[in-house]
Write a structure and sequence with these properties.
Blueprint (H helix, E strand, L loop, with lengths): L2 H11 L4 E3 L9 H14 L2 E5 L2 E7 L6 E3 L3 H11 L5 E2 L1 H8 L10 E5 L8 E2 L2 E2 L1 E4 L5
Parallel strand pairs: 6-9
Antiparallel strand pairs: 1-3, 2-3, 3-4, 5-6, 7-8
Length: 137
């Protein structure tokens, strides 16, 4: 069985939306895995979300073109969970959820606490932004 077939089957059997490049490290060399992932992106089976991170796609019923299978917030939450990075909702989302504000937050922003994160996460034209909270006593 070819590497492409094994990777395709592995992606289809996963329940998660996000697929990391490191998930396929045992299947082949870095260059082989990279070529197959690039082919999957070109064919529309996957979409690149961040460096070494890809999201599954589905066919949009209006345009007929492949689109990410989830929203930026869903994909980012799953990506950070897989990378063991703890993030929380931004202060605006927290205020809206607690009822202190009636303004609906429009941008995708997460709070990283005191941790500095520079990973760029993009789905379509939307990029995730980070909010760093510094609490000094």
């Amino acid at each position: 069985m070819k590497l492409e077939d094994r990777m395709s089957r592995s992606i289809k059997q996963r329940a998660s939306l996000v697929v990391l490049r490191s998930d396929f490290a045992k299947m082949g060399s870095d260059s082989q895995v990279g070529r197959v992932l690039a082919r999957f992106v070109a064919e529309g089976k996957l979409v690149r979300v961040s460096k070494g991170a890809f999201a599954k796609t589905r066919i949009n019923k209006f345009t007929g073109k492949p689109t990410p299978a989830g929203t930026l917030e869903m994909i980012a939450a799953e990506l950070f969970r897989k990378l063991n990075i703890s993030v929380e909702p931004s202060s605006l989302v927290s205020e809206y959820n607690s009822g202190r504000s009636t303004q609906i937050p429009m941008g995708a922003t997460v709070s990283t606490g005191r941790r500095r994160i520079s990973r760029k996460v993009t789905v379509g034209n939307t990029t995730l932004t980070y909010e760093k909270t510094s609490r000094r006593a």
